[in-house]
Amino acid sequence: xxxxxxxxxxxxxxxxxxxxxxxxxxxxxxxxxxxxxxxxxxxxxxxxxxxxxxxxxxxxxxxxxxxxxxxxxxxxxxxxxxxxxxxxxxxxxxxxxxxxxxxxxxxxxxxxxxxxxxxxxxxxxxxxxxxxxxxxxxxxxxxxxxxxxxxxxxx
Amino acid sequence: xxxxxxxxxxxxxxxxxxxxxxxxxxxxxxxxxxxxxxxxxxxxxxxxxxxxxxxxxxxxxxxxxxxxxxxxxxxxxxxxxxxxxxxxxxxxxxxxxxxxxxxxxxxxxxxxxxxxxxxxxxxxxxxxxxxxxxxxxxxxxxxxxxxxxxxxxxxxxxxxxxxxxxxxxxxxxxxxxxxxxxxxxxxxxxxxxxxxxxxxxxxxxxxxxxxxxxxxxxxxxxxxxxxxxxxxxxxxxxxxxxxxxxxxxxxxxxxxxxxxxxxxxxxxxxxxxxxxxxxxxxxxxxxxxxxxxxxxxxxxxxxxxxxxxxxxxxxxxxxxxxxxxxxxx
Amino acid sequence: xxxxxxxxxxxxxxxxxxxxxxxxxxxxxxxxxxxxxxxxxxxxxxxxxxxxxxxxxxxxxxxxxxxxxxxxxxxxxxxxxxxxxxxxxxxxxxxxxxxxxxxxxxxxxxxxxxxxxxxxxxxxxxxxxxxxxxxxxxxxxxxxxxxxxxxxxxxxxxxxxxxxxxxxxxxxxxxxxxxxxxxxxxxxxxxxxxxxxxxxxxxxxxxxxxxxxxxxxxxxxxxxxxxxxxxxxxxxxxxxxxxxxxxxxxxxxxxxxxxxxxxxxxxxxxxxxxxxxxxxxxxxxxxxxxxxxxxxxxxxxxxxxxxxxxxxxxxxxxxxxxxxxxxxxxxxxxxxxxxxxxxxxxxxxxxxxxxxxxxxxxxxxxxxxxxxxxxxxxxxxxxxxxxxxxxxxxxxxxxxxxxxxxxxxxxxxxxxxxxxxxxxxxxxxxxxxxxxxxxxxxxxxxxxxxxxxxxxxxxxxxxxxxxxxxxxxxxxxxxxxxxxxxxxx
Lengths: 155, 329, 489
Fold this sequence. Notes:
The complex is a heterotrimer. Chain A has a single domain, classed as Rossmann fold (3-Layer(aba) Sandwich). Helices cover 35% and strands 15% of the residues of chain A. Chain A has helices at residues 21-30, 52-60, 82-98, 116-133, and strands at 12-17, 39-44, 65-70, 106-110. In chain A, strands 2-1-3-4 form a four-stranded parallel beta sheet, sandwiched between helices. In chain A, helix 1 (21-30) crosses helix 4. In chain A, 46% of the residues are buried. Chain B folds into three domains: 5-100 and 149-183, Rossmann fold; 110-146, no CATH class; 203-298, no CATH class. The longest helix of chain B is centred in the middle third of the chain and has 15 residues, at 169-183. Chain B starts with a strand and ends in a 21-residue tail after the last helix. By secondary structure, chain C is α+β, with helices and mostly antiparallel strands. Among the domains of chain C are: 3-38 and 435-486, no CATH class; 84-223 and 337-373, Cytochrome-c3 Hydrogenase, chain B (Orthogonal Bundle), CATH 1.10.645.10. Chain C is built from 15 helices and 16 strands. In chain C, strands 3-2-1-15-16 form a five-stranded antiparallel beta sheet, with helices on one face. Chain C has a four-stranded mixed beta sheet with strand order 8-7-6-11, with helices on one face. In chain C, strands 12-13-14 form a three-stranded antiparallel beta sheet. In chain C, strand 7 and strand 8 form a beta hairpin. Chain C starts with a strand and ends with a strand. At the A-B interface, helix 2 and helix 3 of A face helix 6, strand 9, helix 10, helix 11 and helix 12 of B. Strand 6 (121-122) of chain B pairs parallel with strand 9 (268-271) of chain C.
């Protein structure tokens, strides 16, 4: 395989919660479970801390996909804040779709601290799904699209 | 001693900011008394080459309204930045793109195609406007459209922001008072980059409607109900953006019975206005079941438009994917 | 050798514009081009928006006349929802609209058009502006103009919620009504507006009509075009700004067509030229024959003069008396002289003020029944009003949820794109001969353009009426032959 035909490696930002999903990721790592290395994890105390701004910033800064992960509904360390994440996720998906970001690029995953294997499997699956979607290539801040493209609109 | 120089210019805008300035009525005489108006194409005689001939930094205060839609807008933005000491992004278009920024949901090709193929358009040869066109007598030109509409600060360095569509006249009058005081040495300019002529809180703070804990089971449409005039609109399921919108307008629209559409831009400290509203609207949904959440969200028929109505060009993502050309995406 | 004169930018226009004038080898005008260099894309980006937002989004087409778009959009959304607005709702909308008309027509006459007449086209440049007007007619005039603008905007705010970009029109009516307290205030302001309108017509009568040179100017050929005329009329064929059918009469005064809003697309088409972003509406029944006058050319005008020509009279008594006097003085209907638009505008100012008082003294104006909740499934609808600058058409299609799927807008000044182009060309042709360009050209081209009310006026101090023009004459090798400036330092 030449340099040019290397498969596209998605960059994925994963927001995990301190009490469940982050520990699941930890467990997978400790147990040396193999899973795709494309996800960069960011630990929040709770998935309910997930401000949609983080997700938009991730996409605007070059992420090809975003994962939000927290405790199973009913098991939230802070009682019910993961439902906030759930509601935000549903609304964000709709907004992102209207902005041309495929719904497949945003994933919500519930994972308890003991579910390292499941976590690993889901990540690997997600990476392949995003690979199939291709790079998002959102223009970066500063990379202003400033060239007039009038040619495109001539008859 | 000559009076300090003042300029006002419009790019991709609607003229509402000019009218808002005129609606300060007699106060316009304070502008006249304290400034020498050197460039204001809508109102007086100076031309672009007169601005070019001015010394750099010789215009003390320039109010710029309008977004950057084409190459002429950009050219003049750079010109006025050079010639001005203080450049204010005046009004929503300059600050965050405003309504013309909604064009960023589409590619500029779609924008032009739509305009030139409407129901009543007679265009059998499928013509489109050309930046250079050769007529029998000579070549004539029109500006070239850019792929996305940009805010003023995405093109040049901006000193202050004055939000609103348009900025309320009483706010404009207050800013003029402040500038006059600064000129007289009685006050100091705010730190560079500040938002002026607006409040530091949200529209909710200025709105007189009663507010309770919100538990929304359904989002509605303002025409399909006779809303309670005393109660918070969002609480009644009418999508109102006041929760994340900067104060300063006296909550005129909710006072008149209409939902806040967000024309004063993001409240203090908000990084992405639309994201903020996603959070707010998601918070008030009264459900923990995914199917029910989806059903409730179906009542918001245009969430991206609702949340980014005035702010798309100034948001983190700036435009929808179809708008970006492939020297970007 | 071909010479070229570029006027860029045109100022005192809502938006941007530029003019190119080409001379032939003899130095006479070969052709002129009036280009509009901007496009924002409303017809595209309104797609996907809930239709009740259209009165709010289309406000931002024009911040000088958002009320016009707000009303056209409101009526279109009523049509989309197949809902009838209660009588009080219609009256409130028309009341807001009448007050807005008073403000808008006042601003144009006193700050833009008036100085040309009140001071005269030959008056010294420094005097041909609102200050000159004040010196000639009296110091209180400036104060009255500010007062009229203030009153008009106060009414807009009371009914529309805000002074610029009103927010209260929704499908089926409005979000609020007015109290008796507000009604009393609005009536007081309306009666003052009638006096102000009469004062303005008096001023026009004594200063303009009392001066033979001005009358000759108005009646002269340079500013005369024989085109079709368009305006909204009520069921009695009287001028109405808010509602009715669109009537078109020909250069001979006979009615060509009278159509309901839903039939606009059978009657109007928009011609495209690739050197400008704006299209040229024309009458389909007659066809596009180019930028020419006459009954065989589909070019039509939509201005205060057009409305008076297309109607059989005014619906209020004081304005009707002025209407009769207007046609008697100018030799019958229709009037083709473009400078008469300024006079027609003042007659409309009077009608708007009378209508304002008529509506606000109706006993049902304070009724709480100002909104009907729509029950039908939204589909498609057309709303037409008269913007001060011409007939304004909004057409929306929606899905079953009332989300816009398509939009078509034909905006006020757009109607006049071809006529303005022709007026500029005729003025240029008559004044530039054998390569001699003189200062007179600048002012005369201005007058041709300004009569159409290119959408803006300015307040007292900033000396409007001095439209900056810089005319650069290039030889064909690019060398500058001469530069003529007016109000350019």
